[in-house]
């Protein structure tokens, strides 16, 4: 596993947030939070999300690629992913 991923996973553990349920935004800059991380490119981000295998969820990968287009971020260059807790609607 990438050493950087160990650091990221520890930050999630410290924050008490599950990586699988965390929401995120993709930007060209960091929001300077404990859950804001720099990735070298889309391939590295997909590796972190464990979506780099041939059996990966095609729809999830396409959704992530669409997020790059919406944000105007080049997936072949570095970018930041700013994770946050899922918002829960109050009743």
Would you write up a description of this structure?
It is a single chain. By secondary structure, this protein is α+β, with helices and mostly antiparallel strands. The protein has one domain (3-84). The chain is built from 3 helices and 3 strands, in the order H-E-E-H-H-E. It has helices at 3-15, 42-48, 58-71; strands spanning 23-27, 36-39, 79-84. Strands 1-3-2 form a 3-stranded antiparallel beta sheet. The radius of gyration is 13 Å and the shape is globular. The protein starts with a helix and ends in a 7-residue tail after the last strand.
The value of Rg in angstroms is 13 Å
Strand order of the largest sheet: 1-3-2
Mean pLDDT: 89
Written as H for each helix and E for each strand, in order along the chain, the element string is HEEHHE
Strand content: 15-25%
Q: Note the overall shape.
A: globular
Number of domains as seen in the coordinates:
1
Q: How does the helix and strand content classify structurally?
A: alpha+beta
Number of strands: 3
User: Which bin fits the share of residues in helices?
Assistant: 25-40%
Based on the structure, what is the oligomeric state of the protein chains?
single chain
Spans of at least 5 consecutive residues whose pLDDT stays below 50 are none
Largest sheet: 3 strands, antiparallel
Q: Please tally the helical runs, counting DSSP H or I stretches of 4 or more residues.
A: 3
Distance from N terminus to C terminus (CA atoms, Å) equals 41 Å
């Amino acid at each position: 596993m990438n050493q950087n991923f160990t650091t990221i996973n520890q930050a999630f553990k410290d924050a008490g947030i599950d990586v699988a349920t965390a929401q995120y935004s993709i930007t060209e800059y960091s929001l300077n939070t404990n859950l804001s991380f720099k990735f070298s490119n889309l391939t590295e981000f997909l590796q972190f999300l464990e979506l780099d295998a041939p059996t990966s969820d095609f729809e999830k990968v396409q959704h992530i690629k669409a997020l790059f287009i919406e944000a105007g971020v080049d997936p072949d260059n570095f970018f930041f992913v700013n994770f946050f807790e899922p918002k829960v609607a109050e009743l």
